[in-house]
Automatic annotation (TrEMBL), chains A, B:
Species the sequence originates in: Thermomonas haemolytica
Annotated protein name in UniProt: CRP-like protein Clp
GO MF assignments: catalytic activity; DNA binding; DNA-binding transcription factor activity
Residue span(s) of domain HTH crp-type: 160-233
Subcellular location: Cytoplasm
Length: 256, 256
DNA sequence: CGTCGACTTGACTAAAATCAAACCCGGTGG
DNA sequence: CCACCGGGTTTGATTTTAGTCAAGTCGACG
């Protein structure tokens, strides 16, 4: 910050340890020495305005991203011109790995609000990972976790009842919010009804009706994008397709 | 090649080069020396009968798999007891990476027919990849390609018209068959209508009707599991939702 | 205070699920 | 050789569900 040292620890702290990706990388045991290597990745921070496009379909694989503030969506446009939302990316969640397979992005990433994003050049990341075993393990794990999110999406989309998809979406979003240290049962949706619909393979009216129904049933409270989960158990029941039943046959712990 | 070397190239040839995974690994330039390293992974071959389970939900990450003969499906059971098919895996296609993120499998893999499968211990694979840069690149790429298949699945499931999902499924299957060196327009489905339905988020009757409709329209020929694609262009049109239109409005390059 | 965009709600239509019955085909055994 | 199964598949009739079209309502913002 003051001395002309090209890469110092202070800068590293700012660039990685403080970053929300930190929570993703560190737990599995990356030590200080490894961090010194990681620094070579020199992530860059960028501010974006709502609606700004971070990368476009067809862009060559350049970097992967983590928002430190704000959320993103990734969307793909079908040949017929319909827009599918492939994912929502909350602060601290990695995205952009979709280009690793083919070398170019399969979708475009758009800021859902004003945002600040951390950009990690993928090639450097891979190069460093090749030299530091613990980082390689982490990189593989992170790619796997990213695939897990896609599987979750498939799980939602394969439900045939719109109400299940909607309930599952809300539940899943809550879980992810919890994971990044935010209240899981009281939050502001970063996306519109239309975007939720395009994520769930529905039309926006159906999503709206689904929300209203959950509201009527006392499961959630909704006003615009403000959502409060009143009865998490009932929400899970709705997600499992047990509409009328209050008690899904699924029991977790001791009945206490 | 003639000496009693415990791990010789001849064996390697049998275990990898001849393997259908070979097509996946080699093109990007893994040279002979790298192959010598790869050999340390010592894949094991296993014969399975139709219906046999290769791994189950919750099993710890042990290996990834490639069928040399026969096909597999991966399925997940929802809390409500419904079975979702997450993927079909043709000979030569890698599967089992779903455990990389969490350390345990999220689904179970079942043989759709009598099969022979090649088992690659993942940890050894990662370890070898860490030592051979070109293999590390390949491993990352393969994981990325595996994620691409999930994206394709999402693309299909997000379609709201059953006819689109079905047409897209057939088209995609054809493409994958072509990739493994089989005719893309005349094949035997390795899975039942019910399994297709559970992959597409539909019921089996809807899939059956979809096939019949494509047959009536002269797009395909179906008899049981035997499928012949008569009009690939019309199939793609159907996949894009242009039911009646013969020419999808999809134009790529200069309008000529 | 008015306007615009996002959201909700309602009435109607189209599509897929459900329920139920046949059908086809490969295999078995008489 | 043919009758008879039985699973997987097709097809039909009906019900349920989500999509479509069209008003409204809400709320933020100028």
């Amino acid at each position: 910050m003051s001395e002309p040292i090209p890469l110092d620890l202070a800068r590293l702290r700012r660039s990685c340890v403080e970053c929300s990706l930190h929570a993703l990388c560190m737990p599995a045991g990356v030590d200080a020495q490894d961090l010194a290597h990681l620094e070579r990745v020199v992530p860059r921070r960028r501010p974006l305005a709502r609606g700004d496009v971070l990368f476009r379909t067809g862009d060559p694989l350049g970097a992967v991203y983590v928002a430190s503030e704000g959320s993103f969506k990734t969307v793909a446009v079908t040949p017929a011109g319909e827009e599918h939302v492939l994912g929502f990316h909350l602060p601290g969640e990695l995205f952009g790995l979709d280009a690793v397979g083919s070398g170019q992005h399969r979708c475009e990433a758009v800021a859902l609000s004003d945002a600040r994003v951390c950009e990690l050049p993928f090639n450097q990341l891979a190069q460093v990972a090749a030299q530091v075993p613990s980082l390689q393990r982490q990189l593989l794990r992170i790619m796997g976790q990213s695939a897990d999110l896609d599987h979750d999406h498939v799980d939602v989309l394969a439900r045939r009842q719109a109400s299940e998809r909607i309930a599952l979406f809300l539940h899943g979003l809550g879980e992810r919010l919890r994971r990044i240290g935010r209240p899981a049962d009281d939050f502001q949706l970063p996306m519109s009804r239309d975007e939720i619909a395009r994520y769930l393979g529905l039309v926006l009216e159906t999503v709206s009706r689904g929300f209203s129904r959950l509201h009527e049933d006392g499961v959630i409270e909704v006003r615009g994008r403000r959502v409060r989960i009143l009865d998490a158990r009932a929400l899970q029941a709705a997600a499992s397709g047990c509409e009328g039943d209050d008690l899904p046959p699924q029991r977790r712990r001791s009945p206490g």
